[in-house]
Amino acid sequence: MISDERTAIKLLGGALQKAVAEGLAPKTGLAFSGGVDSSLISALARSDITLYSVGFEGSHDLQHAQYAAEVLGLNGNLHAKIITQKEIEEHIPDVIRSVKGTDPMAVEIGLPLFIAAREAHKDGMKAMLSGQGADELFAGYQRYIRISEKGYLADETKKDVKNLVEVGIDRDRAVASANSIELRTPYLDRNVIEIGLQIAPELKIRKKDGSYMRKYILRRVAENIIPHELAWMEKKAIQYGTGVHRELGRLAKSCGFRSTGCYLASLAQEVI
Questions:
Q1: Where are the domains positioned within the chain?
Q2: 210-215 long-range contacts, CB within 8 A, separation 24+
Q3: Terminal Cα-to-Cα distance of the chain (whole angstroms)
Q4: Which residues pair with 212 in a beta bridge?
């Protein structure tokens, strides 16, 4: 178990730098939300990488991406796509087909990724880096706080990373592949995972002044590479940050369904 903070920062920083470098190739973009995960990758990548951000007009993710790109000095690299409910409706069948199911969360996560990959493909990109895996590996979700208090954070993150590697990431790669884009995930590099799982739980969630900071050790790595404000900024999950969760719910109700799940299930037979 790696419990020394300096050691963890050095090992994790080195592993991430190598993983990002190995994922780079000509015509590679980056799924960019402006959070610490994607901002760190952008800084470890290169200054000419194209950043793909999607969301409804005025959404949390678009605002964060635009702000982060400005702070990073990458304004000219940002490809921001404002999506509409019509586009969401148009691409739901594509995402259902890609993920082979109608689970609302899978579809809500898949839709913005699908559209980002579609935009990258239009630009002639062949691959796209993404920050998938950082939340599972470094305890980024809100629920990890309660798990940490109960003392089994290490077991839970290990289980979640295993599930992501064996099931979840294939779903995301299928969504990108539907647009002829290869999804590359530096946080799920074998060496990054091995180091991440060895890092002590107290370095992943840090309690200070009565509040909790998730992904603490990743933020400590990031603050040496990107501006401090970006390293410590909180951000919403993709389905909420892009506005897809809200708008998909509205679409379901406008079509006469009481829930998103019922709406998606109604499409299953003709799509799958």
A1: 5-271
A2: 212/145, 212/148, 214/138, 214/139, 214/140, 214/141, 214/142, 214/144, 214/145, 215/36, 215/134, 215/135, 215/138, 215/139, 215/140
A3: 45
A4: 207
Fold annotation for 5-271:
Rossmann fold (3.40.50)
Cα 179 to Cα 177: distance, rounded to the nearest angstrom: 5
Instruction: State the pLDDT confidence band at 271, using cuts at 50, 70 and 90.
Output: low
Q: pLDDT, tens digit, for every residue of 87-119?
A: 999 999 999 999 988 999 999 999 999 999 999
Which residues fall within 8 angstroms of residue 79, CB to CB, at 6 or more apart? 29, 50, 51, 52, 53, 119, 120, 123
Q: What does the alpha-carbon distance between residue 76 and residue 73 come to, in Å, rounded to a whole number?
A: 8
Dist. CA 10–CA 31, nearest whole Å: 25
Rounded CA-CA distance 177/160 in Å is 23
Q: Are strands 78-83 and 51-56 parallel, antiparallel or unpaired?
A: parallel
Q: What is the reported pLDDT for 256?
A: 93
Residue 251 and residue 88: Cα distance in Å, rounded?
9
Is the Cβ–Cβ distance between 25 and 127 less than 8 Å? yes
For 94, the token pair is: 């594509």
Question: Looking at the DSSP assignment, which residues form a beta bridge with residue 52?
Answer: 31, 79
267 half-sphere exposure, CB direction, 13 A CA radius = 23
